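hey m, so remember when u said the tokens were messed up on ur end? i reran from scratch. heres the input so u can diff it against urs
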Amino acid sequence: MSKVYIFDTTLRDGSQGEGISLSVQDKLKIAQKLDYLGVDYVEGGWPGSNPKDLEFFRQAKRYPLCHAKLTAFTSTRRPHLSVQEDANLKAVMDAKVDAVAVFGKSWDLHVYRALETTLEENIAMIRETVEYFKSSGLEVVYDAEHFFDGYKQDKKYAMDTLEAAVEGGADWITLCDTNGGCLPEEIVSMINQVQSKLSVPIGIHAHNDGELAVANSIAAVNAGAIMVHGTINGLGERCGNANLCSIIPNLELKLGYDCLSKGHLERLTEISLYISEVANNRVPNNQAFVGKSSFAHKGGIHVSAVLKDPSTYEHIEPEKVGNKRRVLVSELSGASNLRYKAEELNITEMLKDKDQSKELISTIKHLEHKGYQFEGAEASLELQIKKALKEYREHFQLESFKILVEKRKNQESLSEAIIKIRVEDQVVHTAAEGNGPVNALDNAIRKALEEIYPVIKDMHLSDYKVRVLDEKDGTGAKVRVLIESQNKENSWNTVGVSQNIIEASWQALLDSMDYALLAHEKKQGLEKLEQVK
């Protein structure tokens, strides 16, 4: 099995993406996670460009990586300045790393326009910078910026820049599609022409402006590159960098390359989700391999086939990348969807009564026709199943609620919810304020229930989404409210639909509370069962 080295630049190139801002502590945590995944190089940043990256490398010494080489990034020396005088290069030396990625210009357009220097001076800058770091004992990855565009413009000069890096002692030559506009066949053609002329191994650094960064990276490996640069979740400037969450499993599972240590591929989804949370950049549901929907099945015919043989609609086993199979229940569902969900929820009685199953499917399809969406609210779905099986226990009943919204001149509006709830023979009547009607209602329900059901204190609303279903109806349109709630152990989603946004929110809040109480009772029952055993 051939080895392909993974060079992760999430902390440097990835952090240049719009909306991405990582603190020093964020970067330290992510570096540890990337090391846990098993990448070979972690590019931590450019210590000469900003105080944050300088501080990151200073603190990183306290958290040494077990597998990956912590790598600093920098440019070649400035025109007409010696390597000893260049502050950027000195900052790399002060970072005390084992490896450095040096980028230099391969495209004569950039030499003239960006550097405003001569072609000869650029060659000297590349060679002398690489020599400087090699003489100091560092491993040097030379990034040939804009190489493919430069090669198209002037083959000889682009090759001269690579040869200057090799003469300086570069350990790696990385060919960069910096503008992200190349096609896979172009990448393959140029690598085939280049690699026979070089005595050092080749890497690929692709950007995603043409939605081809993953394809270009894989094509480059097949053409002979043995190092791949990229970022987790494809984070990066403009349209992003090559997505390692797609590249690594394709190389390992489809092409048989060795990228990560054995068994580490199963950590991929975990790492993807972790970094998305730290970067506050949610993984798209449909992202390949690691997305929530990448192994989700909705159509009844699909689900029926998957239950018989998952390979009918899955190109790999989801567990190989740390993901899991999901079956969605919606208006497109059949009995197979519901049977799968019943097994998943350990409600085996659902399998015994076909008429009951058909009735429940009919109910769900009717509700979805009204605007409900159970594929995004599986807690509400579970409650529907329990109600159909007569396993649902009502924990409380609403007597009434009233919401007041007060707006005073030059002040923020204030909402107050007054609620009356019956729990068995006890009536609880209370009120609470909030920064909006739904927040006030949420606070009031909690206040009413927390003494009776203390478990409510451990949960909180973590996300709230509203979608207008019939825009043409204006302010009289139906809305769908999706609520995500969570506690220390789990998170769950519930849904409500109404022409009144408060009513829709109430439905979703009610399901959220009910689900939390049912889950707590189920947990207590399992604990008692274990004690009996």
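this time it looks ok to me. The mean pLDDT is 90. if urs says something different then somethings off w ur setup not the seq
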